Amino acid sequence: MAQQRPTDAAAAAPTMRDVAARAGVSAMTVSRVLKDDPRVTEATRRRVLSAVDALGYRRNETARRLRVGGSGMIGLLVTNLSNPFYSRLALGVQEVAYAHGLRVLLGNTAEQADRERGLVEDLAASQVDGMIVVPASGIHRHLTPAALRGMPLVLASRPPAGLEADCVLVDDFGGAEAATGRLIEDGHRRIGFLGNPPALYTGAERFRGYWAAHEEAGLEPDERHIRRGLSDVATAERAAVALLSEPDAPTALFCTNNRLTHGAIRAVRTLGAPVSLAGFDDFDLADVLGLPLTIASYDADEIGRRAGQMLVDRINAGPDSPPPVRRSVVPIEVIRYGTDRT
């Protein structure tokens, strides 16, 4: 069979050596400029980038990664893909990955630690360049550098336990304290609590913020009005109906995530109770429900973007010169719906 000749376009594609020759530098210097190496002088950097633009040079990222043993892929594991929060987080990760020529392999653990361990092992076996994980539990032995054979790792939404790793968190404590504080400012003194499992970092921190807001106001929550360990809309609705049906029912409820808030809204609508609601996570149509609703809101995409950039930084640094472990906290904003108060 006759050997196929390269197309004219392929034959004419500029190489790194072409860029080096035009700029009057070595190919190694061109490589350093393209990697943003701080050792390159500004004058040399401008000369190389000018040559890149003039020649229309574009690195073959796939070939480059294959030469250094990379796959060009990163893994992302979340706990509940049906929750819009994780969809937005995934979009943020994808935005950064795409900008760096990386593809994203997405997995859903369904809040199950065993499933998470299996998916982590699968991703490691697939030799992804790194992974971002929203942990399903507080046991992270399978995420240690030894277990991952040094693969770059970033945790999102929940911090590492028993290991050092980059992580991106939300201000869970501050958001819960601020949202509950707004209810107290509105005159509520019986504020119920609908929370996810206390073993989860978010559940523990948001409960701590709820309690701290009461202490700051010289109050103490009524233990009879606290429900923890709720997992979805249905369990939150049942808990809210039970709370709001009591003789000394709460006049407001604080919910630790959007699914629990949805359950509380259903309960309020079913009972026709004049109850104010506060919760974490903004959601679509919150502004048209006509209910007094206070939300601790934040940019879920930004969590993904920050986690993605941390992972890219660690991948690019390589195992010989890893950056220091970093923790980033995404701020919250309190939003009021269905009320004239701001």
Could you give the topology of this structure?
Elements: H1 8-12, H2 16-23, H3 27-34, H4 42-55, H5 61-67, E1 73-78, H6 84-99, E2 103-108, H7 113-125, E3 131-133, E4 153-156, E5 166-170, H8 172-185, E6 191-194, H9 201-216, E7 226-227, H10 233-244, E8 252-255, H11 258-271, E9 276-280, E10 293-297, H12 300-317, E11 327-330, E12 333-337
Parallel strand pairs: 1-2, 1-3, 3-4, 4-5, 5-11, 6-7, 6-8, 8-9, 9-10
Antiparallel strand pairs: 10-12
Helix pairs in contact: 2-3, 2-4, 3-4, 6-12, 8-9, 10-11
Protein architecture, described:
- By secondary structure, the chain is an alpha/beta fold.
- It has 3 domains: 8-55, lambda repressor-like DNA-binding domains (434 Repressor (Amino-terminal Domain)), CATH 1.10.260; 70-170 and 301-330, 3-Layer(aba) Sandwich (Rossmann fold), CATH 3.40.50.2300; 172-297, Rossmann fold.
- The chain contains 12 helices and 12 strands.
- The protein has helices spanning 8-12, 16-23, 27-34, 42-55, 61-67, 84-99, 113-125, 172-185, 201-216, 233-244, 258-271, 300-317, and strands at residues 73-78, 103-108, 131-133, 153-156, 166-170, 191-194, 226-227, 252-255, 276-280, 293-297, 327-330, 333-337.
- The N and C termini lie far apart (76 Å).
- The model is unreliable at 1-11 and 61-68 (pLDDT under 50).
